Amino acid sequence: QVQLVESGGGLVQAGGSLRLSCAASGRTFSSYSWGWFRQAPGKEREFVAAISWGAPTTYIADSVKGRFTISRDNAKNTVYLQMNSLKPEDTAVYYCAGGQFSSSPTSYRYWGQGTQVTVSS
Predict the structure, then answer these.
(1) Backbone angles phi, psi at 16, to 5 degrees
(2) Bridge partners (DSSP) listed for residue 50
């Protein structure tokens, strides 16, 4: 069993930056691919970024490409989402997930509780 805890969310002005962290428990962290998703009120869960379990390959959604980066630290069992040049439309609850390298939420078995990101204009 893997448990995920996100942190780093908060309120930021447009153009600002935040770094989200996702700490995973369990000894199989390096065996999984990891993804970040977000969900705004009244909208479906949206893929943001993913990083593979092996020699890291990343996949970034077009909506955040060039502004967000995903990385992992296997020694710390932690996945990061660096968010720069934030826009009000980035406001959402952000979730990290562990599973298969994919942009589909159904490919991920483990989910964190989410962290709120609010970008003011």
Answers:
(1) -85, -175
(2) 35, 59
